[in-house]
Amino acid sequence: MRNMKNLYFSALYGIAVTFAILFLVSCSFEDGEDIYPYTSALFVYQDYNRNIVVGEGLQIEAGITFAGMIDNKKDRIVEYVVDPSLVTSSNKSILPSSYYTLGHASQIVIPKGKLKGYLPIIIDSTAFLKDPKSLTGEYILPLRIISSPDVDSIPEATNHIRISISYFAKQHGYYNYSGSVTKQKNGATDAVVNYKNISTETNSIRFLQTYGPTSFAVRYDQKNSADPAKDSIFLLQVPTSGSSAVTISPHPDSPVEVHSNGNCTYDAENRTFHLSYKYTLPDGTVCEVLEDLIFRNRIRDVQDNGLYINEWRW
C-alpha cells in the first residue's frame, strides 16, 4: 500500500512540476517581447545576385532583418543610403541611378508584427535592357544602413549589401529536344537521322542562353555526342509574350551558318519551340533540320555560396 501511495504522490508531483514549468515558460514569452540584450537591423547577405526576367516584371526588393525580439510591436524605420564606396572590385560598376527607382529615397520600414522590411527597386526597362553590361552581372546597387531610432545597434559587418543585377530574356533556360536531320550531298539525300536528348542523363539538354532582351544563343547538348547541333550555334529571336513566329539567324562564333528553312514558331502555352533550319557542313553536306525544344527548367539568382533558384516546367 505504501508503494502505491508513493507512486501516486510521485505522479502528482511530476504533474505539478510540469505545469509550473509550462506556466513560467509561457509567462516569459508573453510578458515581454525582448529575448536578447539588444535589438539590431541588418542585411542577411552582404553580396547577392539577382536575375530579373524580361516580361515578368522588372522589379526586385532589398530586404533587411530586425533581430533581438520575437514580437515586433511597432513600425521601425531604418535609414539607408546608396553607398558607392562599397563597390571596390575592378570588374564591377555602380548601377546608374537613371536605370532604377527606389521605393523610398532614404528609408526602409519594418512593419509592426514583421521581422523583415523591404525596399522596392524598380528597373527602367528601356535604359537597362539596351545596355550590354546589363547582361553580365557587372552592375551593382550598393546599399548601407546608416541609422535607426528604433533599434539598439547596426552591426558594421552586416550593415550593407551589394546587389548584382542582370537580366534573362523570358525563355532563357534548359530544354529537352527531339527532331530529325536530313543530310544531302550533291543534291541527293544521303541519310535521315532521328535524335533526341538522353532521357536518363540529367544534363542532356539544349541551353537557350540570353543574348539580348528577346534573343538567345542556342547551345548544343554537351552530354549527347549524337546531337547534330554540336556542329553549330545559332541565334533565336523570340517575342516577349504570346505565341508567334520566331527567327533563326547565324551566331558570329559558329563554325557554320544556320538559317531558317521554313516556319519557326513558339507555343507560349506549352513553352515549346517548333523549328525548321538548315546549315552546310565544311564537306559540303547540307543539313535540313526539323526540331522541337520543350522547356524543362531555369536556374537563376546563383549565389556565391552555391544556393540558387531552380524553376521547373509548370
TrEMBL record:
Pfam families: BT_3044-like_C, BT_3987-like_N. The chain crosses the membrane at residues 7-25. Residues 51-149 form the BT-3987-like N-terminal domain. Gene3D superfamilies: hypothetical protein (bacova_03559). Residues 173-287 form the BT-3044-like C-terminal domain. Keywords: Membrane, Transmembrane, Transmembrane helix. This is Uncharacterized protein. It comes from bioreactor metagenome.
